[in-house]
């Protein structure tokens, strides 16, 4: 107990002794140090406060920037969604507009064929034939005898005269040409309606084609649209003609396809065997800087050569010769002193390989808009095979078959209508193509002379169907049923069918005009035929109808 009291007293005494207030002089700096510490603490506190404010400001700025970015992203997203919605509405509106426009045009053109029931392959008499008074066989026979049959003799005399003069003109042309540099001209051939005996409308015009070949040592190597890779639609029916040396490899050498080094030489093609310079290739009527034959250059050369030939032989004849049409370079006209004239077309062509298919530089007469890819693309004509096919089929038909009569009547009606309402997209070649298809489709006994009326209606039905579908296929191209006796090239038989009415798809104004002309021809058919027909008693006509039934 006393020890504990002692310890407590000792602690109290020690605390009293060490208290700073008991020694003010020795510890006089304590208050000053305290104030300095307090001041520093205040300064530190102030700096921390400022730092805190700066950090808060930075945080606020960052939050504001983040919000701005988020808002901008939302705006962009909304704009994209709105643009997508707008694009969808725009596309949908365009589709609806196009559908309405197509419906409107189809409605204007009219739906000719009935929608109910199945239709025959030849098509039924549609709305275009409703209300049409079709001439009977007696009227047609009288019309054919009076208006058409008498023109056969005139055609024969004109063919003989034109062929004789053309042979003389071409012989003079050969004499004025340079055999070592100019093209070699062969004998001419007659093609078309004048030589197939179905042309009816005057003035008669003979169509002559003149094959030509390049001078030695050159030759023509041709390529058609169906002999290589697939061609665009506007090049179907065309081909190109390359001017090559006769000893040049047909497939070509690799040196012509790749660049050899300056220190490398092709062993197959020496400098002596290289093709002619560009200027000399142009002398061979090629397109500039190419080896491809240019149709425009050929026609210029041919015009100049014909002019020189005529100057050499003009003293032998008592008439003048001139080029009749500017847009048809081969169209010539003989003018007699009496004022009469005779027109004919002399057109240069290039033979396709060893066949009777020819590349033709241009067509003398065409109502459809030109769709020529370029002047180095030549159209192929099958006129020689068409003439042979008609001659071959005619031998198997009944005597005095009506196939040519149908074509002549249809050609006459269409020509008369065009003279009243203006030209249309239909040509005589289209009408002949219709006849060729029907000749192959129908048995030979269907072409007996007493079936003229029925076959003429078939041609009109077929033509109506083709116009409605805008499809009339070329008779030879893609036709695997061509008689083998013709020797027709297999490459064209195996090709895709060629639609002769494709321009109607591209040129709706021409199509509309053609359809209107066709309808007008049907309405005026009886009037046009009766105008050139002798009067037939009604009783006689009714009697013929009863016999036909």
Strand content: 5-15%
* Mean pLDDT, all residues: 79
Radius of gyration, Cα only, in angstroms?
47 Å
Which class of secondary structure composition applies to the elements?
A: alpha+beta
CATH architecture of the domain at 122-247 and 279-534: 2-Layer Sandwich
| Distance between the first and last residues' Cα | 164 Å
CATH topology of the domain at 122-247 and 279-534: Beta Polymerase, domain 2
Low-confidence stretches: 25-31, 107-125, 268-278, 535-549
- How many DSSP H or I helices? 14
Q: How many extended strands?
A: 10
Tertiary shape: elongated
For this structure, what is the CATH class of the domain at 122-247 and 279-534?
A: Alpha Beta
- Percent range for helical residues? 40-55%
In N-to-C order, the SSE pattern is HHHHEEEEEHHEEEEEHHHHHHHH
Quick summary:
The chain is of the alpha+beta class and 549 residues long. Helix content is 49%, strand content 11%.
Overview of this protein structure:
There is one protein chain. The protein has 549 residues and is of the alpha+beta class. It has a domain at 122-247 and 279-534: 2-Layer Sandwich (Beta Polymerase, domain 2), CATH 3.30.460.90. It is built from 14 helices and ten strands. Strands 1, 2, 3, 4, 5, 6, 7, 8, 9 and 10 form a ten-stranded mixed beta sheet that branches. Helix 4 packs across helix 6, helix 8 (403-421) runs antiparallel to helix 9 and helix 8 (403-421) crosses helix 13 (508-531). It starts with a helix and ends with a helix. Mean pLDDT is 79; it is low at 25-31, 107-125, 268-278 and 535-549. Keywords: Cell membrane, Coiled coil, Glycoprotein, Membrane, Nucleus, Signal, Transmembrane, Transmembrane helix. Residues 38-82 form a coiled coil. It holds the Pfam family Mab-21_C. One of its GO terms (cellular component) is plasma membrane.
């Amino acid at each position: 107990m006393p020890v504990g009291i002692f310890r407590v007293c000792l602690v109290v005494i020690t605390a009293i002794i060490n208290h700073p207030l008991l020694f003010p002089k020795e510890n006089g700096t304590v208050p000053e140090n305290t104030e300095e510490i307090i001041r520093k603490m205040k300064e530190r506190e102030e700096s921390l406060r400022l730092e805190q404010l700066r950090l808060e400001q930075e945080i606020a700025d960052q939050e504001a920037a983040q919000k701005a970015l988020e808002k901008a992203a939302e705006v962009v997203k909304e704009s994209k969604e709105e643009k997508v919605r707008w694009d969808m509405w725009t596309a949908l509106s365009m589709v609806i507009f196009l559908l309405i426009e197509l419906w409107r045009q189809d409605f204007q053109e009219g739906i000719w064929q009935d929608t109910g029931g199945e239709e025959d392959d030849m098509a039924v008499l549609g709305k275009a034939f409703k209300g049409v008074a079709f001439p009977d066989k007696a009227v047609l026979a009288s019309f054919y005898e009076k208006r058409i049959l008498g023109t056969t003799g005139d055609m024969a005399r004109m063919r003989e005269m034109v062929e004789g003069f053309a042979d003389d003109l071409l012989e003079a042309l050969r004499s004025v040409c340079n055999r070592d540099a100019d093209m070699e001209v062969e004998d001419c051939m007659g093609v078309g309606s004048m030589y197939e005996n179905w042309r009816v409308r005057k003035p008669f015009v003979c169509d002559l084609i003149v094959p030509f070949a390049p001078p030695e040592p050159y030759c023509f190597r041709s390529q058609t649209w169906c002999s290589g890779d697939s061609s665009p639609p506007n090049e179907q029916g065309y081909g190109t003609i390359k001017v090559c040396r006769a000893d040049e490899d047909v497939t070509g050498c690799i040196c012509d396809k790749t660049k050899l080094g300056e220190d490398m030489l092709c062993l197959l093609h020496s400098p002596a065997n290289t093709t002619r310079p560009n200027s000399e290739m142009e002398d061979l009527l090629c397109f500039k800087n190419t080896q491809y034959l240019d149709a425009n250059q050929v026609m210029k050369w041919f015009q100049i050569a014909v002019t020189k030939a005529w100057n050499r032989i003009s003293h032998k004849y008592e008439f003048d010769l001139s080029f009749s049409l500017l847009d048809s370079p081969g169209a010539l006209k003989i003018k007699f002193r009496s004022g009469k004239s005779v027109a004919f077309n002399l057109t240069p062509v290039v033979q396709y390989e060893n066949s009777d298919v020819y590349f033709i530089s241009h067509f003398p007469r065409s109502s459809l808009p030109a769709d020529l890819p370029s002047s180095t693309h030549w159209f192929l004509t099958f006129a020689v095979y068409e003439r042979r096919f008609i001659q071959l089929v005619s031998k198997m038909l009944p005597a005095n078959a009506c196939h040519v009569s149908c074509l002549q009547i249809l050609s006459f009606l269409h020509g008369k209508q065009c003279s009243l309402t203006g030209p249309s997209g239909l040509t005589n070649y289209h009408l002949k193509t219709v006849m060729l298809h029907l000749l192959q489709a129908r048995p030979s006994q269907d072409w007996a002379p007493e079936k003229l009326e029925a076959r003429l209606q078939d041609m009109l039905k077929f033509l109506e169907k083709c116009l409605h579908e805008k499809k009339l296929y070329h008779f030879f191209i893609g036709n695997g049923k061509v008689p083998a006796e013709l020797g027709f090239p297999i490459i064209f038989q195996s090709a895709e069918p060629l639609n002769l009415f494709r321009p109607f798809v591209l040129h709706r104004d021409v199509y509309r005009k053609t359809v209107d002309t066709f309808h007008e021809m049907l309405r005026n058919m009886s009037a046009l035929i009766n105008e050139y027909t002798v009067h037939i008693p009604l009783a006689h006509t009714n009697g013929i109808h009863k016999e036909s039934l």
